[in-house]
Amino acid sequence: MHFASTRDPAVRTTLSGALRQGLAPDGGLFLPCEWPHLNVASFDATDDYGDRLNDTAIRMIAPFAAGDGLAAAIPDIVKEAFNLPAPCVPLTDDGRYSVLELFHGPTAAFKDFGARFLAACFSRLHRPAGRTINILVATSGDTGGAVAAAFHGRAGARVTLLFPKGLVSPTQERQLTCWGDNVVSCAVRGTFDECQRIVKEAFVDASLREQFELSSANSINIGRLLPQATYFGAISLASFVRHGEPLSFIIPSGNLGNAFACMVARTMGMPVGEIVLAHNANRTVVDFLATGEWTPRPSITTLASAMDVGNPSNMERFRALFPHLSQLRSAISAVSVNDAAICQRIRLDADRYGRVWCPHTATAAEAYARLPESSRVAQRWCVVATAHPAKFPEVVEPLIGRTLDVPDNLRALFSREVRVEEIDASLPSLRRVLEATG
Ligand SMILES: *Cc1c(COP(=O)(O)O)cnc(C)c1O
Fold first, then answer.
1. Ligand 1 proximity of 142 Cβ (cutoff 6 Å)
2. pLDDT digits (tens, 9 = 90+) for 227-257
3. Is 307 in the pocket of ligand 1 (CB under 6 A)?
4. Rounded to the nearest 5°, which phi and psi values hold at 111?
């Protein structure tokens, strides 16, 4: 199996190469050269999703590793990375509306799945002359914490986090800065888009690449997407086996990594129905689907801050998969939910379902409420809960009028010492950090 750049099919590599490089050398994103197809009927007919996440994950990921040095290790990697619960909980009595809880990992957000898979792969990659791999991460909140947690203390890897100073929640900032050792946290005087730009500049800077073995753990890395595809595959399969119907997903979206992962599952033949992208007030994707004009713009600050992305990188993958707008429009739909609607949805659903959403998950719950009645009746719907509400107490608690219990995973993070450096939004500043700590 080979992976090629979205910009030039001649730029290709294997799974290990794509993991290591993150971004393709021509600035494009890696996509598999062909899509493996799994036959739903070939999975055995038990419907216990809890038992089949590992099994499904191995079968979904193995074809991408065919012929690569990591192929034999995939079962171990999956076992190590997916040692997390991902329960799908019904919200209505008839079970046709449910929530997939992806927040039971060490940093209480779905990004733990991808980050842990990537870390498990990286610790098995061949490193030339024992060089340290430098992982650069631009983060709008949850990525950095998940990557730091997954790589902290692992030999042969060093993580440099860049996050927009003052634009992540206090709880997120805590989990970005509580590491030390092989994790360096930088508060950047700028926006998330600027953090992402610096990381992209670093990857195309030949002298920096010469000096440091650079890699990325952003959702541009295919090693984040493939593991995320597996929970969509496993849970849609469980639903299909039990009810004979595909499962449609509503996914809180920013950089579109999780949404594209869901598309990967569907492309591989898993019984995924509709895919709805729930965005906050950052409307770039919503407007593109409506008008056909791709107009990236500066990001707007919202309550769902991990989705404050004005130029979502993974749209390049969607457009490579669906070159014509009409194809893309029939493959996905998207809605934009503003802060007022997020707040109202958190209040309403706490009453209606007894469930407290984080602000990101609330965009998806709101998108469900806005579906036409006919579509809510015709399909089985699953909202994806991307983070635990206790990560956003300053938003959520005033809305529901009570304090939230802090789960054990977050409590453990909060007891650690804080370490952070403040830098300008420029490549030279990042270079100085790498030189000082490398
Ligand atoms: C990162 C994140 C998102 C957006 O995910 P993408 O893959 O970037 O679209 C949504 N919710 C939470 C809690 C996140 O951390």
1. yes
2. 999 999 999 998 998 899 999 999 999 999 9
3. yes
4. -65, -15
